[in-house]
Amino acid sequence: MILADLHTHTKYSHGGNSPAEMYAAAQARGLEIIGFTEHSPRPLGFDYTNEYRDKLTRHLPDYAREVLEIKAANAHGPCRVLFGMEMDWLEGQLDFTRASSTAYDFDYLLGSVHFIGPWGFDDGAQPWKDMSQEECEAQYTRYFEAWERMLASGLFNIAAHPDLIKIFSVEQFHVWLAKPESLALVRKGLAALRHSGMSMEVSSAGLRKACREIYPAPPIMVMAAEMGLPISFASDAHVTDDVGYGFARLASYARAFGFREYTVFDRGQRSVYPI
């Protein structure tokens, strides 16, 4: 059974609900831990079509204050709060990322790749529709090269949605992933994850996206299991209905690959819970 959702967002980025509403949803679903991981700020040049950067930057102190108030009020309650952030790995922006990761006294940090160079590849499906298989595969390779650099940085605790890159091109992605050289590239990233003491997120968010598939895909789960990597669970919730979404399915999925426990990070300490 999964009782910790370690990846959630709020109205202060592109979510739809307040921290208090997200917390109430976690309580209603019987979760024992909810991690608030609002997006990190981004510098200009790493932009989305429907950009929320200004709102997020303006309200980041409000987000931190509200989450910490909920955390303090429920320190001994049935659902514990962890204060985190989802940090974007942006090429050439290591100093910016380091500063963002220490802006508050976070309990833990997610690391994720949403940008290949300056392109936010999850911004919409159209660019992917216009790509050939070869062009898609070049982007997958660039993504996992950046992913490895992110994991090797040592800045983060959990690798969020490891194969997010498949979001708008899942069939092409599986063609690429079946190749020995692609598996070797992903395995190299997983080795960096293990060396950095991180866990790999298993996320139901893909079930709600165009790919209609759990993150990460089965071949990556197989490699992670073979390497004995720790995993964590998440919904990547952006509204209250998403909190704890598909967790029974995630539990079955993980157990099918031999996983029997999951990891929660809290201020550098790793706790393990049975699935």
From TrEMBL:
Listed Gene3D superfamilies: Metal-dependent hydrolases
CDD domains: PHP_HisPPase_Hisj_like
Superkingdom of this protein's organism: Bacteria
Gene Ontology biological process: L-histidine biosynthetic process
Signal peptide: none
Family as reported in the entry's similarity comment: Belongs to the PHP hydrolase family. HisK subfamily.
Family matches, as PANTHER family: HISTIDINOL PHOSPHATASE-RELATED, HISTIDINOL-PHOSPHATASE
Name listed for the protein in its UniProt record: Histidinol-phosphatase
